[in-house]
Design a protein that fits this description.
By secondary structure, the chain is mainly alpha-helical. It has a domain of 66 residues: Alpha-Beta Complex (Eukaryotic RPB6 RNA polymerase subunit), CATH 3.90.940. Helices cover 41% and strands 0% of the residues. It is built from six helices and no strands.
């Protein structure tokens, strides 16, 4: 095949600057392992990219989207709007502890730090467990 020229591609991508950007991006993607859509004929990646553009084996719109996506740092994510989900009427909502009417809240036990420590100490076993545990002083001597 004869060498590809800019004139072969400019009717597909009218802006020459954009043509250079698209061909360079396509050449880089070929170098990174993207599949080639034409016969390479021992050509280098930039020539293969220009030939793909000239022969329209890859639509320029697809290459443009790929280029834009590769440059973007923050990809837009469609998040649902705040008003998209319906809100339950007040009478159908269940009470939330500490946020609704105080009379509907259940009684919450209040413990001091000392009471909590005493309760934890009473739960602690006095002897090490018999299922292999930490290997205390009795087991080391055996």
């Amino acid at each position: 095949m004869a060498r590809v020229t800019v004139e072969d591609c400019v009717d597909k991508v009218p802006n020459r600057f954009e043509l250079v950007l698209l061909a360079a991006h396509r050449a880089r993607s070929i170098a990174n392992g993207s599949a080639i859509t034409i016969d390479p004929d021992n050509d280098k990646n930039p020539v293969v990219a220009l030939r793909e553009i000239a022969e329209r084996t890859i639509p320029p719109e697809d290459m443009r989207e790929s280029l834009i996506h590769s440059i973007q740092k923050n990809v837009e994510v469609d998040e649902p709007e705040a008003a998209a989900a319906p809100v339950l009427p007040h009478e159908r909502r269940s009470p939330i502890l500490g946020r609704d009417d105080q009379s509907s809240d259940t009684q919450v036990d209040m413990l001091t730090e000392e009471q909590l420590l005493r309760g934890l100490e009473s739960m602690t076993p006095s002897e090490p467990s018999s299922n292999g545990g930490s290997g205390g002083p009795r087991e080391r001597g055996r």
